[in-house]
Amino acid sequence: MSEQPASRSPVSRLVSSSDGASAVEFAMIAPIFIALMLHILQCGLLFVAERVLQNATDSASRKILTGQVQSNQVSESQFKSAVCAKLYNIFDCSAVYVDVNAYSSFSGSSYNQPMLTYDSQGNVNNTWSFNPGQDGKVVIVRVIYRWRVFGGPLTYAIPNTANGYHLMMGVAALRVEPYS
Fold first, then answer.
1. Across the strands, what pairs with 169?
2. Which segments within the chain are labelled E, that is strand?
3. Where, by residue number, does the polypeptide cross the bilayer (predicted)?
4. Looking at 12-21, 139-148, 166-175, which range is the least confident one?
5. Each residue's pLDDT tens digit, 96-121
6. What is the per-residue pLDDT across 169-180, written as a single tens digit (0 to 9) for each?
7. Which of 13, 78, 122, 165 is most buried, judging by how many CB atoms fall within 10 Å of its CB?
């Protein structure tokens, strides 16, 4: 007569069972993996957006460099439209700020990131200049945009303003060519 194996206790069966181990391991790793993927996506989008903003700034600034803006008496809104035309609908054009200033020399110019001021609803209420200069003047073009950072556990380092936005800026420094 063959002897029956001793039946194991329910606790020992539970400890030695490997059913569902993969699901438990995935549940432990998935949140970290998803957070990391969202952070990589956010950083990639931010990088692309900053490049698009800088390219739009360079393209529109070329019209100041060659005197087209000055000769055709282009207004601030027309210049902003030229910038927005190069932003490929990635940005909300109503939230793009354009600041154009003329200086007598590069050493006297300012191209630092501006300090934004806000009204009670959280809207930017800075006053921006539009002075494309004349022949031989140094012109600094700054195109500013507040990029909304979407949430996630790893996005704490991306916003550079107090209200969860990343302030990005395209800058072009140029000397206006003789055009008259």
1. 144
2. 96-103, 138-148, 165-175
3. 26-49
4. 12-21
5. 999 999 999 999 888 777 888 888 88
6. 999 999 999 987
7. 165
> What percent of the chain is predicted at pLDDT more than 70?
89
Q: Tell me the C-alpha to C-alpha distance, in Å, between residue 26 and each of 18, 19, 30, 59, 154.
A: 14, 13, 6, 48, 20
Cα–Cα distance, 56 to 24 (Å, whole number): 49
Structure tokens, 169:
């800026």
Helix (H, G, I), strand (E, B) or coil at 124: strand
d(CA 27, CA 48): 32
Decide: 139 and 176 in contact? Cβ < 8 Å.
Answer: yes
User: Does the pLDDT at position 93 exceed 60?
Assistant: yes
Strands (E) in 120-159, as ranges, are 138-148
Question: Distance between CA 3 and CA 20 in Å, rounded?
Answer: 32
